[in-house]
Each structure stands twice: as structure tokens, then as C-alpha cells.
């Protein structure tokens, strides 16, 4: 399963339907959030994995709790929401509220719902990474290359796909990924989500206006 397969396949649809029903938001908004947040999470984990201790901790977490089974049976995502919140706290630390505010502005999901929704999505993203780790027989030392390879493959894949809302979102996200300052949060929130303007009004190339055109900003 590729990253694009994850975001456009049955797993994301099932998860989006559960989250949408629970929080009263549209399934399309949840899928769009997953399409934006997944590369952000992977990028941040790739950056953290440059530290040997962080890489070992991530490797242990993937071996212990994220073997990819959730992708085959995503019915349990709601029960893992608290776990997902802990995952996000570890990944983003003190920047988590900034991430959630930017994602809220750019997906139209209210800020009080964005955190809980992301918490349901996080175990799915980790499950995907764990599945890729197992399939490629990667240990702690190879996680950085694995995560970078996931993003690189997704970037190449969407460039060759026909225009479709999710493909177009990913194309925009992965375009921001190539403009690296060394801080994935700055790279993606800055280049893709329109920087720190704080008002959600991006120019024509910003993801906020892009999602607004697709989903009506609802």
C-alpha cells in the first residue's frame, strides 16, 4: 500500500465516515485533513528520527503498537482516540496547538474539533508507517530513509495522476515538502498552508483557498 492508496482507498473512507459522524463534519473534510496531516506527521517524524534516541523510541513504538493491523480493520479508531492524542503530543510537542490552528483555518474544521479528529487519524498514520517498516525490514537506523522514501514516492506518484481533489491536495502538499528549511512544521505550514498569517486567507496557490474551492469552505 502506497501513501496515495491509503488516502484514496477504503481505509481512509471508513475512518473519515466514523470521524465525520462522531464530530458532525463532512467525510470530505476529514479525508482532506488526512491528506494534509499525513505528510506533515511523516515529515516531522523523519526530522525527529535524525536523533538516535528518537529513532529508537519510534522504532519500538512501531514494533509494539503499530503493526498495520488497523489498516485492515479501522473500526477501532474511535477507541484509540486517546492514544492518538498522546501520539500527537509526542510528535508536535508545544507546537501542537499551532499545527491544529493552521489545519483548522485551511480545512474549515472548527478548532475545537480538529484536535479530536486528528487524534482519531494519528493511529492510522502510525499503522501505515509500521506496515511500511515491516514490509521493508527496516530498523531504527533506517527510519529516516524510509520516511523520506514514503514522501518521495508519493510526490512522484501524484505528479503522474489525473486531476482529482485528493490528488490535487497531495500535489500541493508535496510541492511544499520540496521547499525544505530543515523544519518540517515550518516547511509545510509555511509553504503549503500559507504561513503564519493567522487569518486563513491565502493567495491562489495556498491550500486554504484550494480546499475552499473544492469543498466550499464548509
Structure explained in plain terms:
This protein is an all-alpha fold and 218 residues long. It has 12 helices and no strands. The model is unreliable at 177-181, 188-206 and 213-218 (pLDDT under 50).
What labels describe this entry?
single chain, 218 residues, mainly alpha, globular, disordered C terminus
Helix content: over 70%
Query: Could you tell me the mean pLDDT?
Result: 80
Largest sheet: none
Number of separate helices: 12
Straight-line N-to-C gap: 30 Å
Order of helices and strands: HHHHHHHHHHHH
How many distinct beta strands?
0
General shape: globular
| Helix/strand class | mainly alpha
Give the percentage of residues in beta strands. Answer: under 5%
Low-confidence stretches: 177-181, 188-206, 213-218
**Structural Rg:** 16 Å
List the helices and strands and how they pair.
Elements: H1 3-8, H2 10-23, H3 27-48, H4 52-65, H5 69-72, H6 81-92, H7 96-107, H8 111-135, H9 143-159, H10 165-177, H11 184-191, H12 207-215
Question: What is the compact description of this entry?
Answer:
The protein has helices at 3-8, 10-23, 27-48, 52-65, 69-72, 81-92, 96-107, 111-135, 143-159, 165-177, 184-191, 207-215.
